[in-house]
Amino acid sequence: MLRLYLVLSWAIWPLALWHLGKRLARGKENQRSFKEKRAIITTKRPDGPLIWLHAVGLGEVLALRALIFALAHARPRAHFLVTSSAQSSAAVFVNNCPPNCLHQFLPLDLGPFPERFLAHWRPDLAIMAEQEVWPRFQVEIARQNIPLAWVNARISPKSARVKGRFRRFFLNIYRYFDYISVQNKHTASVLKDLGLRDGVGLAPSFKLAAPPLHYDTGLATQFGALLSGRAVICAASTHAEDEQIILPALKKLLKTNSETLVVVTPRDAARGGAVAQMAQSLGLICAQRSLGGKITPQTQIYIADTYGELGLWYHLSARVIMGGSFCAVQGHNPYEALAAGKAVLHGPFVENFQDDYTILDQVGAAQMVTTGDELLFQLQNAPFDKMADVGTKLLAQHSESFTQLAQDLLALNPKRLG
Fold first, then answer.
1. What is the CATH number of the domain that holds 146?
2. Helices 157-165 and 185-194: angle between axes, nearest 10 degrees
3. Assign residue 49 a region: left if phi > 0, alpha if psi is -120 to 50, beta otherwise?
4. What residues contact 404, with CB distance under 8 A and at least 6 apart?
5. How far apart are CA 32 and CA 23, in angstroms?
6. Is the model's pLDDT at 399 over the cut of 70?
7. How many domains are there within the chain?
8. What would you report as the CA-atom Rg of the chain, rounded to the nearest whole angstrom?
9. Are the CB atoms for 259 and 231 separated by under 8 Å?
10. Cβ–Cβ under 8 Å, residues 83 and 103
11. Are 222 and 181 members of one domain?
12. HSE, side-chain direction, 13 A CA sphere, residue 17
């Protein structure tokens, strides 16, 4: 199957280019991503050691910052290249980029693109994060004798069933990794069942040690003045199904807490109009940031439909409701809110972060709600200050674990990174 994949990767790459062009025409790619996904690179490689890290989505890319800071502390002269696939991850990472760090879009895992990418950047260490495997890249990385690590690995039960059906294919892929670090025992067990008996380590999720999201202090001052002491609730990274539960509950809250302002940050910023329409259908007074809407004393719902500003809303909020947890999305990262010193309320569907939410609920840094009425009750009664303090202490306990992980990774190429 691996040989078949490699053959097909050369056979279908012209079709993939056509599809990429269609995405550009529909606005799902921009000129930069269109070029970089074809391995057309205009940025010069920095001199000295270069460590390449890859993750796909927004949360996964931001979580890499914890590891980058640990690696940079150990090797101050190193440079870092971070790649991702989603446009939202690129837009947000620009404002949260660590020192000596560049961002590019990952080229297609097809045809000549992996070889062209590696020939330009010549990384001294390649690191894949979370659920990522890229067969063409992994074969080419091995051919060029570049050490390859898989870190923060996580395999969901559904993904484990698929991998079990194609055991030999995935076993061959995973054998290309020189180092594997998983974030839970379930993933370690899946890899063992596939045939990887040795060399799999367990480390905390990167999200536990990621620094707070960046925010513009000037905007914080500006919006702080507009809020005039109003309590702010942030409904973060929401989807339509979340809003159908959250907004009616917040409408009830606003009847008795008229000074409260609710900030809704849809996961997909393009949904801002749909959120506004839903809020208005409930009789709520709203303003939309992407349209230049202003916060006035009468504003009840402020729709922050922009990328890269979630850190601002976490900073200004007193309470956070985490989206993606009332629907089939199965949860979003709670640690960004905790890193900002906020406690989290969340729905029952959190498979993507099941172990994380279980721990946070048990220690009292987060609270699950299953209905709109439960959400309303917790917004009115939960001890948010105490919950936030517990969350802050929990994050501090895990930050030191990345020092050893960084040393293990640097040891993969002691000649260049030692």
1. 3.40.50.11720
2. 0
3. beta
4. none
5. 13
6. no
7. 2
8. 22
9. yes
10. yes
11. no
12. 15
Beta strands in 304-365 (DSSP E): 319-322, 344-346
Q: Is 131 helix (H, G, I), strand (E, B) or coil?
A: coil
What is the tens place of the pLDDT at every residue in 32-62? 999 999 999 999 999 999 999 999 877 788 8
Phi, psi of 72 (to 5 degrees): -65, -35
pLDDT in tens, 321-333: 999 999 999 999 8
Across-strand partners of 235?
A: 264, 321
Domain limits at 300?
Answer: 217-398
Q: Is 170:190 a contact under the CB 8 Å cutoff?
A: no
**236 touches 321 (CB < 8 A):** yes
Contact (Cβ atoms closer than 8 angstroms) between residue 334 and residue 356: yes
| 165 contacts: CB under 8 Å, gap ≥ 6 | none
Q: Concatenate the DSSP letters of all residues of 233-265 into one string.
A: EEEEEE-HHHHHHHHHHHHHHHHH-TT-EEEEE
* Same structural domain, 308 and 361: yes
For residues 369 and 409, membership in a common domain is answered with no
Residues 259 and 309 in one domain: yes
Q: Which two tokens stand for residue 151?
A: 């870190």
Q: Do 153 and 268 share a structural domain?
A: no
129 & 245 share domain: no
Per the structure block, which two tokens stand in for 130? 């979370």
> Tell me, what amino acid is at 187?
T
Report if pTM > 0.85: no
